[in-house]
Write a structure and sequence with these properties.
Length: 290
């Protein structure tokens, strides 16, 4: 493998507020060893090959020099990997050795985008793009610390299909984090409280999070509406980026300005309590207890 080192970027999960592309792939990952296919054992000169199709999907099987990629429509394509293949993460090229990268980083269940070169009917990977968080998840699956990919997909789809009306949720717990006047900056205590809430919710079957932002009565209605939405968005970002909460288990956040005050807005103490974001752990009444 050819590995190029670049500085990693901050991974922005907030841009992915829908189910990850991988979750729509229903194919069961195949054993990692013994992958066979029609790709020839002799690698042609890249300069002699034509540009092939870009393949997006999940690695459903692999061997030392081949991967099988299953697309969202169920099609399976065997693609050869070699010393010219670049493997790029969302934060830069992975800083690993070539051969080791092929066997330890291209894991079953890993969503990838593969740019290919074509020689006859054979496809060769010129670049394989993946995301850091997906690599971490695939590693967890392989190590037996997470659900199998297909099981997670089935569970997610079942949950999404059965949860339709927000009025049919039970509120299991609520965590409030507070802000300074006019600010949307999370304190260190707020960050700790958010991850504690997320960790507790992880242990609840079928739990979802609903994030609602609020302000005190200081400022105009327009300003407070924008500020409450900004606070809610900041909390959602932190829950997903730092606390590991999955975007597809997050209901649409909202800002409520100074509505539903938690305390008296005529006192400084009351205003401090009202400058908050409420993180509600919800379970559908139809799924509660399952």
């Amino acid at each position: 493998m050819k590995v190029i080192s670049k500085s990693p970027k901050v991974f922005a999960l907030a841009a992915m507020l829908a189910v990850p592309a991988s979750a729509g792939l229903a194919a069961q990952p195949q054993p990692e060893a013994g992958l066979t296919g029609s790709v020839t054992d002799t690698t042609p000169d890249p300069a002699s090959m034509a540009k092939g199709p870009q393949i997006k999907g999940m690695i459903s099987a692999r061997s030392a020099d081949k991967i099988q990629v299953t697309t969202a429509d169920g099609n399976r394509t065997i693609i050869a990997i070699n010393d010219n293949t670049q493997v790029k993460s969302s934060g830069g090229f992975l800083g690993m050795g070539g051969s080791k990268l092929a066997t330890s980083s291209l894991l079953n269940g890993l969503p990838v985008t593969v740019d290919t070169l074509q020689s006859g009917s054979d496809l060769y990977a010129s670049k394989i793009s993946l995301q850091n968080k997906d690599l971490k998840t695939a590693a967890m699956i392989r190590n037996g610390t997470d659900q199998r990919f297909a099981e997670q997909t089935a569970a997610t789809e079942a949950l999404r299909s059965r949860v339709a009306d927000i009025g049919n949720y039970n509120v299991k717990s609520t965590t409030n984090v507070n802000f300074d006047t006019g600010k949307a900056v999370l304190s260190e205590q707020a960050k700790a409280d958010l991850c504690t809430a997320a960790n507790q919710a992880q242990g609840m079957n079928n739990a979802m999070l609903l994030v609602v932002g609020y302000t005190d009565s200081t400022g105009s209605e327009e300003l407070n509406q924008a500020l409450s939405e900004k606070r809610a968005g900041r909390v959602v970002n932190y829950l997903q980026q730092a606390c590991g909460w999955k975007p597809y288990r997050m209901l649409t956040p909202t800002g409520m300005a100074e509505a539903d005050p938690a305390a008296d807005n005529t006192t400084a103490e009351g205003k401090a309590q009202n400058r908050r974001v409420a993180v509600n752990v919800l379970v559908s009444k139809g799924l509660d207890g399952m």
